[in-house]
Amino acid sequence: HDHFLSGPQPLPEDEQHLPSTVSSCSGGVVVFTTDYGQVYTYKQNALSRQKVAPMHVSSISGVEDMSSLEDLHDGAIMYNLYLRYQHRLIYTYIGSILAAVNPYQNLPGLYDRAAVDRYSRHYLGEISPHIYAVANECYRSLWKRLQNQCVLISGESGAGKTESTKLILTFLSAMSQRSLDSPGASSTGSTSRVEEALLESSPIMEAFGNAKTVYNNNSSRFGKFIQLHFSQKGNIQGGRIVDCILPNP
Ligand SMILES: Nc1ncnc2c1ncn2[C@@H]1O[C@H](COP(=O)(O)OP(=O)(O)OP(=O)(O)O)[C@@H](O)[C@H]1O
After folding, report:
1. Ligand 1 pocket test target in 152, 154, 162, 212 with most atoms within 8 Å of CB
2. Lesser CB count within 10 Å: N end or C end of the chain?
């Protein structure tokens, strides 16, 4: 029987409910082993719902969208990300927000041309969570909402913000190129240079803006606001990169 364990309520900041199973129950003592390997022993008569609560079925197998979790607390969110990560599923939605877990390795096929095509043909949430789905939603919303769109990427150092930014730019560049290749569109060749310039700006920016730190071998030492301008047809016409959030010396 799966359970979440907890200490006294409210939980101290560094404690959270943990997914566990009862490994033994005799002599008035219950032993719980968490899925992460820790062992907790409780006197049976001292157990309360505050300490141990049944785990909802939605938390046991993992969900693609964590807004559908019945147990909504840090422990349930962490466990869901953990379950998916074990199957190399690094992306998970929380409604329309995407949570990404850094895999620290290349995952074959995850970002290839076929993936760009697949995500360009589906709305966010229709197929498995992916950074391309966020980029696609952003691109489509330019026409759906007729408003500027913005993607905010946040996370601790080494979480994968820079890589995620590059993936979004890759997707948008592919969409831009496609809008020029579509029948009736006349490609001038100059816009494809804009896309190339955009993608090739990353290594240049990294050459003088990144440094090795204890957290990340390729850590950005300043934040970037990247603005892209799209034509009505859907191709990128230009853009700019503004450095911001300079850390204190
Ligand atoms: N989606 C991914 N797939 C494979 N490896 C990744 C992915 N995202 C990040 N990484 C790896 O993790 C490293 C750190 O990621 P990244 O530089 O994007 O972090 P960051 O959040 O921008 O960190 P900082 O705030 O320090 O700049 C990358 O150099 C890369 O090796």
Report:
1. 162
2. C
